[in-house]
Amino acid sequence: MLGAIGVLGVGVLALIGYGFMLAATLALPKADEHPPLRIYSAPFFLAPGLSLAESGLFDRLHQLEYHRVSHTPRAVGEYSRNAESVEIFLHAQPDRQLPAGIVRLSVSDGVVTDVLSLPDKQPVPWVSLEPVIISGMRAGSRQIREWIPLERIPPLMVQTLLAVEDRRFFSHYGIDPIAVGRALWVNITRGAVVQGGSTLTQQLAKNLYYSPKRTMRRKFKELMAAVVLEWKYRKEDILESYLNEIYLGQAGSVSIYGIGEAAHRYFGKNLDELSIEEMALIVGLVKGPNSYSPVRNPAQAMERRNVVLRRLREQDVVTEDVWAKAVKQPVKVVLGHEALTDAPHFVDYVLREVEEGTGTGIPEGAKIFSTLDPWIQHMAVKALQGGLSKLEASHSAIKESEQPLQGAIVVMETKTGRILAMVGGRDYRLSQFNRAVQAYRSAGSLFKPFVYLAAFEASREQGADGLTPASLLDDEPVTLESGTGPWSPQNYDRQYRGQVTVRTALEQSLNVPAVRVAHRVGLGPFIRLMRAFGVTAPMPKNLSVALGSSSVSLLEITSAYAGLSNGGVAIRPIAVSDMVHETDEVPWSQVVDRRQAASPQGTYLVTSLLKGVIDRGTGAKARILGVQGPVAGKTGTTDGYRDAWFIGYTADMAIGVWVGFDNERPIKLTGAQAALPIWSELAVKLVRPDQPDFDVPEGLAERRIDPKTGQLATSQCPEKITEFFIMGTAPTVYCEVHGGGLWERLKQTFGVF
User: Fold this and answer.
1) pLDDT recorded at residue 179
2) Angle at the Cα of 269 (from 261 to 266), degrees rounded to 5?
3) 434-481 residue pLDDT tens
4) Which CATH number fits domain 447-544: 3.40.710.10, 3.50.50.60, 3.40.30.10, 3.10.20.310?
5) Exposed, middle or buried: residue 314 (CB in 10 Å: 0-12, 13-18, 19+)?
6) Hey, what's the torsion of the CAs at 113, 118, 121, 126, to 10 degrees?
7) Is 165 helix (H, G, I), strand (E, B) or coil?
């Protein structure tokens, strides 16, 4: 007997000691603890020349929670529109010291002609919509939230939560024996665990301190922690922590914690703007945030919401009339799942760039202003997901693969290097591997334009003997010494076309002429050129590198093509504009790495050839799919059909697309078949039909050429095209196949072209 009492005494002492240890170590989170790091998109500028439709202006306004009104905007966040103007009451932007104010966009044929401030109607030099918060970090996890004090939380929200989760919260001491007994009885009578008896304090303890894994040991710790929290803190403190810490689902890669963030993410509202049915839906999520998600499972969400509403009616929290009206309301979330998704792969890239740039990590509470355009990002996500699904639906061999078909997209500003969008895969939740940055795959034909660019650059010194877009190349079987021994390249279709111009060779992506040019120029100049354009991957010193045997990332090769658009000026991709500390200091800014990789004249010649790829060559399907305006681009297909690429660009934007399997299993499709349709889907949304053409630099000569002979066209030539040449390299001989008249002979005699 005495032994049993002794054991019991030791147990009690141990329990008391454990309680004191918990009292010393457990602490509720505070509002100012671990201030969140927030990552913002780039601001969107409103300026003359802006197309309302093609810029997605109204989608952008809705994303920023602006509301359309039928009258002149009177409150911040309102806008009105008609055929002649759009008026917006802009939110204040404290970070940029910009007050709230009304602007009027004068509109003609859907294009902004003037930006005026109201009511004085004075021209505004520049104005922008505020940046969007795209992600954040708090205490090491991906989340965005603001701590809301209990006094700012609507009493009805508190009543709704307590009615469903813990009716006796203000009368128990962390454990509710009545609730435990009721749950135990229900579970026994139904033969399954269908009800729990945990109090809010127990749930908070589990969420803050312990694993969700169900074990007796964890349950005991949870009970002890609940009792200690009740002893140590006021009920109001515990309730405030619970309302701010409870997990309520996912928005893409971002976790939704707290009722304030749930109200914002699911309904685009502040807490005091929620209806009773919206409050009930949020409270219903506590039981199972993913099972009752209004985005993924709207039917289950409605069923659970109505259970909560019924409980409110049973406890007389709401009247019969309010209940009857609320249960009839459909479940409406402000955004669909795709629009709720942030840019997780891009955010990962930003965080890594900042950490490497600062060398000291990212301070808590900092604000990172990125270069991302949320509207373009959304369009890119839709294009990739929809395009990959179409490929699977139309090609059974792809659909039957053990691994899902993957892809990636990068969109960049060519003149600044700013990354506007980055999609690193189909679903970040299933794979965080960023295929836009981390995947290095064989480039295939994407290297060919740079082979010809190296030759054009060399032609400056070679004069009339130098390579030009009109030069004839032999497309015939050839064996060349290539570092590893004799090598006989072949074209994609195993066919040969005799003599072709450089333009035809690149437009049709012929392998043999490209290898001949690489052999003629030498691998040294070509590899140095690729390095200058930012391609860092190892390159084998054999001629196969001309056909893209080296591996590159999508971001790297898209950036290289952006350099072609930018007159040969290569800019290292930029993802961050600046970072601001809590104290408004700027501890780090990304340095712009800009260099002249090739001459404006040589790069323009390549751009001219790549415009032909879109108009007549392997990328002509883009025109069929609706892409308009001056666009240059190149398909890429690797050996064995393992990778499909398309990189296309305008005078101010480059878009890169890659499609393939992670395990490098052949997709048995070309770049034109797999990547080009996805690229076109996005380009149709982003490229305006009246997009400005590429600027023609000085130092070029323009000639009319016979495309068959590469010589100056005559009146007898059945076809004539306009071609550009670096000064001193243009042909001087008129077409010798079709012949010419007296006029052509006189011009040739006197050197007039």
Assistant:
1) 58
2) 55
3) 999 999 999 999 999 999 999 999 988 777 678 999 999 999 998 887
4) 3.40.710.10
5) exposed
6) -50
7) helix
